[in-house]
Amino acid sequence: SQWPDAEALVTRITLIGLLVMALSTMTLSCRDDPSSDGDGDALRHKGFMLQFATGLGFYNISGEGQSIHGMTLPFSLMMGYSILDDRLVIGGGGFFDFVPSPGGDWPDNSDVTQHILSLGAFAQFHFKPEGGLLLQAYGGFGVLDNSEGGGIAPGGPTFFLGGGYDWFITRSLSVAVLGRLVLAPMFVDGGSFFVIEPTLLASISWH
């Protein structure tokens, strides 16, 4: 498949994420005490959540006698709703992990970039609804493509497991540091590849 403007897509995703952050911040009321809401109740994850995350990662693709690896720029956008006394958020979203310079069994003089694009279901569990330690899980379908195009892009199930720590900075906005491990078996034309990608991200969530 053809993806001639991967770099432009990365820029657009980044700008959309920054716009979401800016709009969320602009809609918040100024408060003297960020540890409680207007009625004096402790802040907690409740209701709708929209989360944007980005950071750095490292991926490795193995299979068919090849091994490709490189640094990644991961982006994700997730949304969901809190249930179970506001401890569990369930919903969906997707992620786009961009590889600007693949290495390994990749031609050294190649200007081709790679990316993983996935859409799926998402869950986030909070040990305390007021914030703190959390766990994440994701399952969906994705494709592994490159900017050169041509042929059919490998595709298959994509998963990640993760965890981190979050805290509120305003009544409706929280930030977090997250670690995720992406696992993705990919299949094409009778062949198979396996992608593994640990990532470290910073996220901002609107509630």
Alpha carbon gap, first and last residue: 37 Å
Anisotropy-based shape: elongated
Compute the number of strand runs.
9
State the helix count.
Answer: 1
Helical fraction equals 10-25%
The description of the largest β-sheet is: 8 strands, antiparallel, barrel
Return Rg in Å.
19 Å
Give the tags.
eight-stranded antiparallel β-barrel; 59% strand; 10% helix; single chain; 207 residues; mainly beta
Explain this structure.
The protein has 207 residues and is mainly β. The chain is 10% helix and 59% strand. It is built from one helix and nine strands, in the order αβββββββββ. The chain has one helix spanning 6-26, and strands at residues 48-63, 66-83, 88-99, 103-104, 114-126, 132-146, 155-168, 173-188, 191-206. It is elongated and about 55 Å long. Residues 28-33 have low confidence and may be disordered.
What's a quick, concise take on this entry?
With 207 residues, the chain is mostly beta strands.
